[in-house]
């Protein structure tokens, strides 16, 4: 048997039939389905039993309610497949999803294969969810380090590197075994992240496919969409768990830094919901590299440059004697051309560009214009949220 599909079930009777039918209708057939009834009280357990009697490759586990993590652990303990996947009991699949994932897993000899899906609102409105900024194949000793260095947070894109949702993934059972046993059962928020990201550290090959076959149902009563004060504690539990898991490989892949930015996404959403505040994304000006009350030239009028400019104008930290942009100056009277820099008196030129490659090109151009390299400042912009 190649694939075990584990479905934790808790009080989703109105959606459960569609979920199970979408699995048994898969074109891929070399699999077992394990339904874990986690103490349902709405008849979901009876629906599970019905399908177990109808299909000999479906098994049911009935247990007292222990939460999603505990239910997944119970299902994993009896799984017999070479690969394992998980599914939420109110979601559903395109009929060829497992065929696509397993073809890549077996033919490509991949430890983990992932794809994207759609968020659906009450099963009517659909929103495409891009799985990752990291589409492609990654192999240890060749390019897997690139994936691991941005799987939680891709600095270049300003977003997570890959969606940790387990629904659109197949993972080798022996890799999951190294992670599942120790997952903290207290985790209520980010349970997928607590499993998926540590699994990536054990994998020797990962493939991310640019396909969309999993349907995530968003309900008004959904746990992942409900916000309250306890949310902060749930985020903290997830953070501390992953922090411990990442310590060993932190220096190699900057995992703790990635984790902090990943967790901030949870926190910023909660702050907006609980306190009815709108958080604005800004790029923090490189204060440590610029002396207070000094005269600077700001180079770059894009999002980073606009953010730097607004901060300095509000704080009065230093004096912007000129704002420079190679192209935008042609259409904006507030900007000047780089060729005019030589006429100005200043102590630093602050390059407000996100891309390191572009910043290096600008630095070379400035040096060609006779600018002292010691007067040029560029730091990778750090994005943060403010009220």
Overview of this protein structure:
With 387 residues, the chain is α/β, with parallel strands linked by helices. The chain folds into two domains: 220 residues, Spore Coat Polysaccharide Biosynthesis Protein SpsA, Chain A; 101 residues, 3-Layer(aba) Sandwich (Rossmann fold), CATH 3.40.50.720. Helices cover 36% and strands 24% of the residues. It contains twelve helices and 16 strands. Strands 1, 2, 3, 4, 5, 6, 7, 8, 9 and 10 form a ten-stranded mixed sheet that branches. Helix 1 links the parallel strand 1 and strand 2. Helix 1 packs parallel to helix 2, helix 6 packs across helix 7 and helix 8 runs antiparallel to helix 10. The protein starts with a strand and ends with a strand. The mean pLDDT is 89.
Roughly how much helix do the residues carry, as a percent range? Answer: 25-40%
- From the alpha carbons, calculate the radius of gyration and give it in angstroms: 25 Å
Distance between the termini: 53 Å
**Largest sheet, if any?**
10 strands, mixed
- The SS-based structural class is alpha/beta
């Amino acid at each position: 048997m190649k694939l075990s599909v584990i479905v934790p079930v808790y009080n989703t009777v109105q959606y459960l039939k569609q979920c199970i039918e979408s699995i048994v209708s898969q074109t891929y057939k070399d699999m077992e389905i394990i339904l874990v009834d986690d103490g349902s009280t709405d008849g979901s357990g009876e629906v599970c039993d019905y399908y177990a009697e109808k299909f000999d490759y479906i098994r049911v586990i009935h247990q007292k309610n222990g939460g999603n993590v505990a239910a997944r652990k119970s299902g994993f303990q009896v799984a017999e497949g070479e690969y394992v996947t998980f599914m939420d009991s109110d979601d559903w699949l395109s009929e060829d999803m497992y065929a696509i994932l397993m073809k890549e897993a077996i033919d490509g000899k991949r430890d983990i294969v992932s794809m994207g899906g759609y968020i659906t609102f009450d099963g009517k409105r659909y929103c495409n969810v891009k799985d990752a900024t990291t589409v492609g194949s990654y192999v240890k000793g060749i390019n897997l380090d690139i994936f691991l260095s941005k799987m939680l947070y891709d600095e270049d894109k300003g977003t997570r590197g890959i969606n940790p949702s387990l629904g659109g993934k197949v993972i080798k059972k022996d890799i999951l075994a190294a992670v599942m046993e120790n997952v903290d059962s207290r985790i209520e928020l980010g349970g997928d992240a607590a499993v998926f990201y540590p699994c990536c550290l054990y994998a020797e090959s990962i493939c991310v496919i640019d396909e969309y076959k999993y349907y995530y149902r968003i309900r008004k009563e959904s746990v992942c969409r409900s916000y309250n004060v306890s949310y902060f504690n749930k985020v903290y539990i997830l953070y501390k768990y992953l922090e411990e898991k990442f310590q060993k490989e932190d220096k190699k892949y900057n995992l703790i830094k990635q984790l902090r930015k990943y967790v901030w996404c949870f926190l910023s959403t909660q702050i907006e919901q609980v306190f009815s505040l709108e958080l604005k994304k800004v790029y923090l000006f490189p204060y440590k590299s610029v002396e207070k009350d000094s005269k600077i030239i700001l180079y770059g009028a894009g999002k980073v440059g606009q953010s730097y400019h607004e901060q300095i104008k509000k704080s009065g930290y230093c004096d912007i004697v000129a704002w420079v942009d190679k192209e935008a100056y042609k259409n904006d009277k507030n900007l000047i051309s780089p060729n005019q820099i030589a006429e100005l008196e200043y102590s630093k030129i602050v390059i407000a560009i996100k891309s390191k490659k572009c910043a290096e090109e600008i630095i070379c151009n400035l040096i060609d214009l006779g600018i002292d390299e010691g007067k040029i400042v560029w730091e990778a912009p750090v994005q943060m949220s403010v009220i």
